[in-house]
Write a structure and sequence with these properties.
Length: 56
């Protein structure tokens, strides 16, 4: 498994936690940062998947 896939998954989880924490506390900035980090994680996971597929 490509390192990008694991790092992407980690970013998605961190982003979700930030987003939820932002919603709970009413902190829009933190909520938006979480959403952005989730997006980065999704892209990173997709890159890792593509690399894995290319190796096959």
């Amino acid at each position: 498994m490509d390192k990008n896939r694991t790092e992407g998954a980690k970013n998605q989880v961190k982003g979700t936690v930030k987003e939820v924490a932002g919603k709970v506390t009413g902190n829009k900035t933190q909520e938006l940062e979480g959403k952005a980090q989730k997006g980065v994680g999704k892209v990173q996971s997709a890159v890792g998947k593509a690399k894995d597929d290319a190796r096959r």
